[in-house]
Amino acid sequence: MEKAIISLIADFLSFQLFSFKFKTYLCRQIKIKFPASNLDAIFKKLKMSLTKEKKSGIFANFGGNETNTGSIEGQIALLTERISQISTHLQQNKKDFSTHRGLMQLVGKRRRLLNYLQKHNLQGYRELIEKLGLRK
């Protein structure tokens, strides 16, 4: 079983769409050299940032219900969560400029959504800002 999982990860890393730089970065993040003996450590390092359950919880709290993924409040809350995760990543990796650019794009998108919400629903805007702990 252990060899099968290691070969699966090796196949993933040999996939043609990923650049050599990304593969070496991934190996550095996992902190392994193949073959690995401790698979639990590998899977803890490869966890997803936002799982389906976490996203549905965010939309349930801010968007009304789990399936209301189009609500402005839910989208702003989801962007806020992603922004906070990327910010912690950038505190550890100060020279990751491409992620910094993505962060700036997310901040701009959240700002535009907040401006839209402020123009169309001022009371909802104020409640959301207070609930999320944003400074506006």
How would you describe the shape? Answer: globular
The topology string of helices and strands comes to HHHHHHH
Number of domains: 2
Please tally the β strands and state the result.
0
**What is the first-to-last residue Cα distance?**
52 Å
Query: How much β-strand is present in the residues?
Result: under 5%
Q: Helix/strand/pairing class, anyone?
A: mainly alpha
Major sheet: size, sense and barrel closure? none
Average predicted confidence as pLDDT:
79
**Could you please say which CATH topology of the largest domain applies here?**
Helix Hairpins
CATH superfamily of the largest domain: S15/NS1, RNA-binding
Oligomer: single chain
From the coordinates shown, what is the CATH architecture of the largest domain?
A: Orthogonal Bundle
Q: What is the CA-based Rg, rounded?
A: 19 Å
Which CATH class of the largest domain is shown? Mainly Alpha
Show unreliable segments.
none
Question: Helicity, in percent?
Answer: over 70%
The DSSP helix count reads 7
Structural commentary:
The chain has 136 residues and is mainly alpha-helical. The protein has two domains: 2-45, no CATH class; 52-132, S15/NS1, RNA-binding (Helix Hairpins), CATH 1.10.287.10. The chain is built from seven helices and no strands. It has helices spanning 2-13, 20-30, 39-45, 52-62, 72-92, 97-120, 122-132. The longest helix is centred in the last third of the chain and has 24 residues, at 97-120. The model has no long low-confidence stretch (mean pLDDT 79).
